């Protein structure tokens, strides 16, 4: 991987009067020179995944970046059993774009909650 470092130096020299207190006293403020840190060219690739049979936590993600271009995808098993897969990209010009797919059939388990009955005695 080749790393390109850009050295940026910005020097700011501004003098202006700003109020210091409520008695009309003004003091000049001089800005301090600012030097930007070198910037490395952003380039990476990663993959991540979890498959926990005990908790049911199942998900994965992969992403690639080269400069301003980022693209990747992630998927996860939703609590209802469906799978959500998201494919995304950003080319540095048109903004972030995502395409979402949902597959499978939702399962909503029936829960039986006992209902308390009031009994009235006359």
SSE layout and pairing:
Blueprint: E1 5-6, E2 9-10, E3 15-19, E4 26-30, E5 34-35, E6 39-40, E7 43-52, E8 57-66, E9 69-77, E10 83-90, E11 96-103
Antiparallel strand pairs: 1-6, 2-5, 3-4, 7-8, 8-9, 9-10, 10-11
Kindly describe this structure.
There is one protein chain. With 122 residues, the chain is an all-beta fold. Helix content is 0%, strand content 52%. It is built from no helices and 11 strands. A 5-stranded antiparallel β-sheet has the order 7-8-9-10-11, with no helix packed on it. It is flat, with a radius of gyration of 29 Å. It starts with a strand and ends in a 19-residue tail after the last strand.
Which tags fit this structure?
two-stranded antiparallel sheet; 11 strands; flat
Number of strands: 11
Sketch the major β-sheet. Answer: 5 strands, antiparallel
The run of helices and strands is: EEEEEEEEEEE
The portion of residues assigned to helices is: under 10%
How many H/I helical runs?
0
Could you provide a short overview of the structure?
The chain is mainly beta and 122 residues long. It has no helices and eleven strands.
């Amino acid at each position: 991987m080749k790393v390109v470092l850009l050295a940026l130096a910005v020097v700011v020299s501004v003098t202006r009067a700003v109020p210091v207190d409520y008695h009309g006293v003004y003091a000049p403020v001089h800005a301090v020179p600012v030097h930007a840190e070198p910037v490395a060219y952003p380039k990476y690739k990663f993959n991540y995944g979890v498959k926990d049979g005990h908790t049911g936590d199942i998900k994965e993600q992969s992403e690639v970046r080269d400069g301003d271009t980022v693209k990747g995808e992630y998927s996860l098993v939703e609590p209802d059993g469906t799978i959500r897969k998201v494919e995304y990209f950003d080319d540095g010009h048109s903004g972030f774009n995502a395409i979402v797919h949902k597959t499978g059939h939702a399962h909503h388990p029936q829960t039986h909650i006992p209902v308390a009955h009031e009994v009235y005695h006359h």
